[in-house]
Amino acid sequence: MSTRPTRAKNFARTQALVKVFAPKQLHDAIDATRTMGELEFVAKIGAGFAASLAAAPAPERFTLFLLDAGPNKIGTIKAIREITNLGLKEAKDLADAAGGHPVKILEGVDHRRAKAGYDVLSGTGAKAEIG
């Protein structure tokens, strides 16, 4: 029985590399396989993967602030309820508090959710900010 990996194993390894590495890193890895043995190549890939994990930025979290409820206060209250799933009283209290200073509507969310909330609030004429 041969100790060389089968085509299916080679394909699976290639798919794993494509998912993990950037195109430049993948190109370098393919070039490396042509010039070194398999064990040396595996060690190099493992070190590169560890370095890419260390260099990866932590996912950022954002906060959506309501600065002013705007002229359509009822629409703003409905928007706050839609974004946060709060009750009517809690949403009204947030809209009322936004007159003098920023009020947190969403906290610790990804940028996509914060932007969606910003768009909903802005659509009602309210002033909002992502921080």
Describe the structure.
- The structure is a single chain.
- The protein is of the alpha+beta class.
- The protein has two domains: 7-55; 62-130, 2-Layer Sandwich (Ribosomal Protein L30, Chain: A), CATH 3.30.1390.
- 61% of the residues lie in helices and 14% in strands.
- It has helices spanning 7-20, 23-35, 38-55, 73-84, 88-97, 111-123; strands at residues 62-68, 103-109, 127-130.
- It has a three-stranded antiparallel β-sheet with strand order 2-1-3, with helices on one face.
- 18% of the residues are buried.
- The model has no long low-confidence stretch (mean pLDDT 77).
CATH homologous superfamily annotation of the largest domain: Ribosomal protein L7/L12, C-terminal domain/Adaptor protein ClpS
* Helix count from the secondary structure assignment: 6
**What is the CATH class name of the largest domain?**
Alpha Beta
Mean pLDDT: 77
Give me the Rg, rounded: 25 Å
Largest sheet: 3 strands, antiparallel
Kindly report the CATH topology of the largest domain: Ribosomal Protein L30, Chain: A
Strand arrangement within the widest β-sheet reads 2-1-3
Distance between the termini: 61 Å
